[in-house]
Specification:
heterodimer; A: 315 residues; B: 781 residues; 26-stranded antiparallel barrel; globular
């Protein structure tokens, strides 16, 4: 084969070429017998016309979970796209062939809830999708196909390393945040948005995978769960009081710099309320509340302390 | 390649099968950047496609922890490139066997597999190693670095003064030690379809962490006489989680009963270090060098259990009821450490006096959390949707309260007598917080036609604090109103405009309550001004008015061109109406406090993005984006020294404005010329961030300007591939990254630059890295 292409374009063009070569034989086949199913039960209704030469190749579905006919739950083309009789049998006199009953393309005229309904017919049974109806994405009229590529062998949004690129289609501030100095390792693929978020809806705020922000954080940071003898109230309220988990330029993902972030709540006499400025920064010496870890140079146990002498979070 | 059995059979019978197979093979044989950075959709999925095995070598010319922070590519050396995705369906009964390995030549990698029969059962197992290389230029004087017990080396003579005067005593003993954390994550799981609509899933996850983290280790506990040293303490802990769920579903209803257990085990109960500072005024009991030690309590081992029932019911074809009930119990009962390590029985030569025993040997900490969440969602008419939801959350904190007479920073004697009549700020009661939340939301929309939808919602939220007498407020109430006009479907244009107003109010704000609850009455009588000035409002519980506006749109004028834009802006004003009145005056009637509240006064966030993708010609894909973002917080404060004169003096006021600006841009192209055996792509990312600190001192104060912090990243990736034949391809990659940062907290700071603190000498990181990679992939069998 002399052809080599990139992505679906390559697949499409290669197939077009091969289809051309095979056209005569294929035509003879179809003339002799009714079209046969290629991948799914009953798909001949569609695959007699649709194949890998489509802009959106259809046969790759055979490489997905949706293509496993041994699984009794496996749908066929019409399960999602509808019977589409007018599409199959173009009405006489109609210039353009009507679209299938349900389409999922970018400019589809199928309402988002109808698109989602096709998927929910099966997937609403799963725990992960049972909160879809009325979820934030549903209310924003996002349909499943806005994120999922059903026919592709590998769906970008289901691969940890590539998932965020789909989410960033809408969540653009988070894309910029991911590239900041201090961020969770989405950029290098060790985490995905779904490590924390359940995009199909949840009972937690912000579509989080757990019922609270803190419980979500404790999934990986269980050491900060306590309960502690000495609790730091904003920590117990929400981790996001001080951290922006999507990334900031103030390590470790702080929403603002120390010491001034701490001083937004601490105005006790002497050093907590002292105005710290640029004096005595290097090459001068002495600015102990500004250098290094700032307040945490001493108050290092800021997430909570279980030490009987840890009232000030130094122990 | 792998298709299902029936597919393969069908292909075998038709002449087009060979073409399809070849096409799919070609589709899985494409180039991609060496370091994939998920910026946009439409990613090249070739590395993750079925049955690809890739091996090669990459060479980096840069030694930098920051460059290899999470990949592990932090040394100037060669690295093995190894990736594999194997997917097999060895039968026609739905049996599958999948295996993967990603970045197995790098310190951060993962591998795993799954086996099962689709629709019946499955098992899976994986291992992920996530290493974080944090600091490679840090220097320390202690021995035992990375353990939980640090001592000072022979010959070290102690610091006789502030660190800036002690460089000669410190420098001979400084040695570099890399600070890094290694996390290994083991996951094992299984699932089974039980019939009659029942499924069962179970998963186990174990996180093991090793390495070290920096900690500020301080001796002495007041601002006047601390002496600290930044040191690495050893990490060695394990988190185990198990989740089991029984799931039932029918056509119209689903329910899941699940159990989640999480256990955190820290093999270290404490971290100790030998005090490098000679004894200073205020320290007693030989707590200085060489006899004195300091000890910090490690994060305590704890466990958490949650049982949860969720369910959904399609009451009618247009109405769904969802619900959740969960109960969780978090417990922590690690044995307490003594008040101090510097007593004669623990550390020879020291003799701090600790006459009062701990009130208990461990915390017996316990938090019970009950959550009920109900929502009813309906489309009663084709043009109308309505959602009503209610949430109740009771976070009951049963942790016992006691009085602890603490020892300040392992350097002071304990108060000899502990009772409420003792005027000592070192006698404190712990205040375990608990809350009850009730939240109701009504959300509806109406389809105006032509894809336009008008939506509005109202949310009421009330939080009651469990121990009202100990809290700044007894309750808070949020009222939120939102409206949105959205355009969906058709015409190549979608978009939305959203406005949200959110307001928090609550009971009288009283700084004295936690003050009086935690300190002895003798202290609060002697010092009527609380630990914080009464007009301080903590931003996480204080009043605010929040306005948010969002505008977004996506336009696809042609199939080849897609443009999107989004703007987010919000302003949160914390200057609530209760400032300076009510309790502020009642609390300290003899004092005057200004009407302006102190603390965070305002926060503004804004972000604007434009991006687009374009296919100017067959085989050429281009993307481009730019984001500007800005976040600011303003605060008002007062510098005071515990005297009434300064507490009431507006000349002691100061204000700060912290502003963080970011510009992020990205561009990329992918070119796949027709009729050629090669393709190539390029991707460039630029991001810069600036942090500005503006200070406004009162007339009695002075301030020197604070330099800006800055980060700048330039990242270029060039990649391409050459297809040798339908099964073998070569990938070529080049990555260039230049990173420049400036940070006043670290730049030009030596270990002895700071008063009171022995630093690490860490500098804000800069690097310029070139990475070359070549690999061969075998694919598509």
């Amino acid at each position: 084969m002399r052809f080599v292409r990139h992505g679906w374009i390559a697949a499409m063009q290669a197939t077009v070429l091969a289809f051309g070569l095979a056209a005569a034989a294929h035509a003879q086949d179809t003339a002799k017998a009714a079209p046969k199913d290629l991948v799914l039960k009953g798909d001949a209704k569609c695959t007699r016309c649709h194949d890998e030469s489509e802009d959106y190749p259809v046969l790759d579905i055979g490489k997905t979970r949706h293509g496993v006919i041994a699984d009794a739950r496996t749908p066929t083309c019409t399960s999602c796209h509808g019977e589409s009789d007018r599409h199959i049998n173009k009405p006489e006199g109609q210039k353009e062939r009507p679209k299938p009953d349900r389409t999922f393309s970018k400019n589809s005229e199928t309402p988002p809830e109808a698109q989602a309904g096709a998927c929910l017919a099966c997937h609403e049974r799963s725990t992960a999708h049972q909160f879809w109806q009325g979820s934030a994405h549903d209310r924003s009229r996002i349909s499943c196909s806005n994120c999922h590529t059903t026919h592709a062998a590998r769906d970008q949004v289901l691969v940890r390393q590539t998932q965020a690129g789909v989410c960033f289609s809408c969540h653009k501030e988070q894309r910029a945040a991911m590239l900041r100095f201090s961020a969770h390792p989405l950029r290098t693929g060790q985490m995905a948005c779904s490590s924390c978020h359940q995009p199909h809806g949840s009972t937690g705020d912000h579509n989080l995978i757990r019922t609270t922000i803190n419980d979500t954080c404790y999934t990986c940071h269980a050491e900060k769960r306590g309960p502690f003898l000495h609790e730091h109230p904003p920590v117990r309220e929400e981790c996001t009081n001080c951290h922006n988990p999507h990334g900031t330029n103030n390590p470790p993902m702080l929403v603002a710099r120390l010491p001034h972030l701490c001083q937004q709540c601490h105005i006790a006499p002497f050093h907590p309320s002292t105005l710290y400025s640029g004096s005595n920064l290097p090459p001068a010496a002495g600015a102990d509340k500004m250098l290094g870890q700032s307040c945490a140079n001493c108050h290092s146990q800021i997430h909570g302390s279980n030490h009987p002498s840890g009232q000030r979070f130094t122990r | 390649m792998t298709t299902n059995h029936r597919t393969a059979r069908a292909f075998a019978m038709k002449p087009l099968a060979a073409a399809v197979i070849a096409a799919l093979a070609a589709g899985s044989a494409l180039g991609e950047p060496l370091f994939y950075i998920p910026l946009t959709r439409g990613a090249d999925m070739s590395r993750y496609n079925d049955n690809v095995v890739e091996a090669g070598v990459a060479y980096s010319d840069e030694d930098s922890f920051k460059f290899g922070e999470f990949t592990g590519m932090r040394k100037s050396e060669a690295y093995f490139i190894g990736n594999a995705n194997l997917r097999m369906r060895p039968g026609n009964d739905g049996t599958y066997l999948n295996a993967f390995a990603t970045n197995i030549g790098l310190p951060s990698y993962d591998l795993g597999g799954e086996y099962g029969r689709q629709g019946n059962w499955g098992i899976n197992a994986s291992w992920q190693q996530i290493n974080r290389y944090q600091f490679d230029d840090t220097k320390f004087i202690h021995d035992g670095l990375g353990s939980n017990q640090l001592t000072l080396p022979a010959g070290f003579a102690g610091l006789a003064g502030q660190p800036p005067t002690q460089a000669a005593a410190v420098e001979p003993f400084l040695r570099e030690y890399d600070v890094k954390q290694e996390r290994g994550i083991l996951k094992v799981g299984g699932k089974a379809t039980l019939g009659s609509g029942f499924d069962f899933t179970i998963s186990f996850r174990q996180d093991d962490r090793d390495g070290s983290k920096l900690v500020g280790a301080a001796m002495g506990n007041t601002g006047g006489n601390p002496r600290a040293v930044i040191v690495p303490y050893g990490l060695n802990d394990r988190t185990q989680q198990i989740e089991a769920a029984l799931h039932w579903s029918s056509k119209d209803a689903q329910a899941t009963l699940s159990y989640w257990y999480s256990k955190y085990d820290n093999s270290n109960s404490s971290f100790t270090w030998q005090n490098p500072y000679n004894i200073i005024s205020g320290w007693v009991g030989a707590s200085g060098f060489p006899t004195g030690y300091g000890r910090i309590g490690a994060m305590p081992s704890n466990d958490f259990q949650q049982i949860q029932l969720t369910g959904g019911w399609n009451v009618t074809p247009t109405t769904r009821l969802n619900g959740l009930v969960s109960y969780s119990l978090a417990k922590q009962n690690d044995a307490f450490l003594p008040y101090t390590i510097n007593t004669a029985d623990q550390t020879p030569g020291t003799s701090l006096s600790v006459p009062n025993a701990l009130p208990r040997s461990s915390l017996d900490g316990e938090i019970q959390n009950t959550t009920v969440d109900l929502s009813l969602f309906s489309r009663p008419m084709p043009k109308v949707t309505v959602k009503a939801s209610y949430r109740y959350q009771d976070r009951k904190n049963s942790t016992p309260e006691d009085v602890y007479a603490y020892v300040g920073g392992d350097t002071t004697n304990q108060d000899p007598v502990v009772n409420d009549s003792i005027n000592s700020t070192r006698i404190r009661r712990n205040l375990p917080p608990g809350t009850k939340e009730n939240r109701f939301k009504l959300d509806g929309d109406y389809a105006l036609g032509r894809g336009a939808i008008l939506r509005g919602w109202y949310q009421y939220q009330k939080i009651d604090y469990e121990k009202a007498a100990d809290e700044l407020r007894t309750d808070t109430t949020n009222n939120q109103f939102g409206a949105e006009l959205r355009k969906v479907m058709g015409d190549g244009f979608t978009g939305a405009v959203r406005y949200v107003f959110d307001q928090r109010r609550g009971s009288d704000y009283d700084n004295s309550r936690p003050y009086e609850a935690s300190f002895t009455s003798a202290v609060t009588t002697a010092q009527p001004i609380p630990d914080n000035i009464p007009t301080l409002r903590h931003y996480f519980v204080g009043d605010y008015d929040n306005n948010l506006i969002r505008v977004e749109g996506a336009w696809s004028p042609t199939e080849q061109l897609s443009l999107t834009a989004r703007a987010d802006w919000y302003k949160r004003d914390y200057k609530g109406p209760d400032c300076g009145g009510g309790n502020d005056q009642v609390l300290a009637p003899a004092l005057f406090f200004p009407s302006q509240c102190l603390g965070r006064t305002e926060a503004v966030g804004e972000s604007y993005t434009i991006d687009g993708s374009w296919v100017p010609m067959d085989g050429l894909n281009v993307f481009l984006f730019y984001t500007y973002s800005r976040f600011t917080t303003d605060q008002a404060s007062r510098s005071w020294n515990n005297t009434t004169a300064q507490a009431v003096s507006e000349a002691q006021n100061w204000q700060s404005s912290l502003e963080y600006l970011d510009n992020t841009a990205g561009a990329g192209l992918r070119y796949t010329p027709a009729g050629k055996q090669w393709d190539m792509g390029a991707q460039y990312i630029y991001t810069d961030g600036t942090g500005k600190t503006s200070l406004t001192p009162g007339s009695a104060l002075t301030a020197t300007s604070v330099p800006d912090t800055s980060t700048r990243l330039d990242s270029l990736q060039l990649y391409g591939k050459y297809v040798v034949n339908k099964n073998v391809l070569l990938r070529f990659n080049y990555a260039y990254e230049k990173y420049r940062t400036r940070d006043w907290a670290f730049d030009n700071a030596t270990p002895t630059s700071s008063n009171n603190v022995l630093l690490t000498g860490h500098q804000a990181p800069n690097y310029t890295a070139n990475v070359f990679g070549v690999s061969v992939a075998y694919t598509g069998w």
